[in-house]
Amino acid sequence: MSDNNSKAVQANDFIRKIIREDLASGKHQQIVTRFPPEPNGHLHIGHAKSIHLNFGIAKEFEGKCFMRFDDTNPIKEDEEYVEGILKDVRWLGYDWSKSLTHASDYFEQLYEFAEVLIQKDKAYVESLSTEEIREYRGTLTSSGKDSPYRERSVEENLSLFRKMRKGEYDDATLVLRAKIDMSSPNINLRDPVLYRIRKVPHQRTANKWCIYPLYDFTHGLSDALEGVTHSLCTLEFEDHRPLYNWILDEVSAPCFPRQIEFSRLNLSYSVLSKRKLIQLVEERHVEGWDDPRMLTLSGLRRRGYPASALHLFCERIGISKSENNIEMNVLEDCAREELDKTAPRAMAVLKPLKVVITNYPENQTEEFEPARHPKIPEMGSRKVPFSREIYIDHDDFKEDPPPKYFRLSPGKEVRLRYAYVIRCDEVIYENGNVTELRCTYDPKTRSGAKAEGRKVKGIIHWVSAQHSLNAEIRLYDRLFEAPQPGRNDPEGNYLNDLNRESIKVINDCKTETELSNANLADVFQFERVGYFCVDAKESRQDMLVFNRTVTLRDTWAKLEQEYSIQD
Ligand code: ATP
Ligand code: MG
Predict the structure, then answer these.
(1) 38 classed as catalytic
(2) pLDDT digit string, tens, across residues 381-433
(3) Residue nearest atom 2 of ligand 1, based on CA coordinates
């Protein structure tokens, strides 16, 4: 799919259709959306879908998108998450300019709206315990029943609610509930709780409040206070929409946002719920939120994913109402496509095998000067020195080659990328292992010269031994080995599906010396191997650490093809 095609797909999703109609009919002059994360964890790739939708629409229709923290639960929230979330959204290239808000900015107005409901006898203070409230609520198949406190007078309710605010009651003794319908088929309408007592300081309002509004009450009203026109959320909120509308109606909200639901992103071989991500971090199944195996935005960034790959991914998966599961290789392909366009090329040998070119003069060095990028001449060229001792990858040599093996084996020839054709004359062993090859090169085969009548099919990469740089390389694989982690476990324990081989560290790799100039977070294509990013956290002055972003091909597709590239 080309970029143009994928843009065309995105531009036609059902939400954009609604928006176009609303603009055409004059219902709205300006589109206002919001991205409303709860600061109780860092963002993951599912959030990228929502960010791309909300900020993307605001940009496309020249509207506005609020970056709003939904900070109504001080127990689980943390300022560290706020900083991380803002960094991630910025990294995706979005700017909220003056529209950074917090649900807590509206606590006073929300409180007033709650009083409006009480005055209208549309809300009451409940004295039943949490347990009793649950019992009275009924089930999907049986109706709920009215609480004995449902008929408290407006005056009593107002007085109790004001005292709740003043801190005169303990946590969990009273709550404020909407008075809707205990027999509604929609459980969300069976007198939902609007406020609870939590004597916990809030990260922004400190000790000013000891009652906090719940999500359903807060969300729609915050939308209305910001003049949001389209409140875009995931499908699990579909059953909350009647409540969303009920609250706006009953308080005569300043404006009436339209809630529209779309399907959330599910990605194979991963988990995308904050609760599970927190567990992975806390139980140290991964090194942290930004572990390159995590599908958090910080993890993907550290792994070397460019933000453009996530945009491409979001465009490709599009927006719809149907639940779906996206294959991991869709995401990986986006990284490959974007990095292919931008990543400078370099050679790196992951499993070095020393090769001595016996007919090459001992103190001689020559330099090849290949392009940094085959299609972007402006990126210039790099200097690749060649000398008598080089390293090739152990995997590019086989003593007993199978048929059609085009790489190096005893008595056979191979081309060294950018350099010469060499022939393997002798294999040196130590304790039964191959430790060195003795080869001869043919000076007539210098890259660029006419290869006279020679048919050497294999081309391998290499680095000059004396000019090479040591590096540590971390090969990452999918964090889970099952497409739907936890699915085959009776208790749904997704931890049993962790891929024990999701990280492999190799610390004696050799790269081109050019890489000593690399900056943290730079991504290279190691020719024939994959895309690798300089780890921004653990690279040291004396040893660069590279994270494998993605292999060149989808190794999970089990396409075992003989691989040779053209010189
Ligand atoms: P989680 O389910 O991972 O714990 P959440 O929905 O509780 O996430 P919020 O911080 O409330 O996380 O999410 C902010 C916004 O991102 C919401 O509008 C939510 O609908 C959206 N969002 C969260 N997860 C996904 C997902 N997997 N796909 C699309 N949008 C998502
Ligand atoms: Mg949520």
Answers:
(1) yes
(2) 999 999 999 999 999 999 999 998 999 999 999 999 999 999 999 999 999 99
(3) 273
